[in-house]
């Protein structure tokens, strides 16, 4: 898909190559995110994975999270951190979270703040 789009855009040099990603989403409760992040300088995949706080993120570089796999777990799971081939200072992150647990934990946090 990316190569085909690049060949089509070759006729229009003023149009930059966009970052694209194709995802086939499973059907199950939960949230999955494909997040594109641009940095001032290219930090490298390993540095990104190391810098994410462990209390918030479960980084799984070799085992990408799925909606089913994160069911019943707290926080956000991140896997498949890859550099964007078209933008050297950008990366893609695949994230998943249990939407029911996330909503419940946020409700408890709000209730605690109200006390």
Bulk shape: elongated
Beta strands, count: 4
How many helices does DSSP assign?
3
* Share in β-strands: 15-25%
* Main sheet record: 4 strands, mixed
Instruction: Name the poorly predicted regions.
Output: none
Helix amount: 25-40%
| Assembly state of the chains shown | single chain
Mean pLDDT: 85
What is the structure about, briefly put?
The protein has 115 residues and is of the alpha+beta class.
Can you characterise this structure?
The structure is a single chain. This protein is α+β, with helices and mostly antiparallel strands. The chain is 27% helix and 24% strand. It has three helices and four strands, in the order αβαβββα. A four-stranded mixed sheet has the order 1-4-3-2. The termini are far apart. The relative contact order is 0.21. The mean pLDDT is 85.
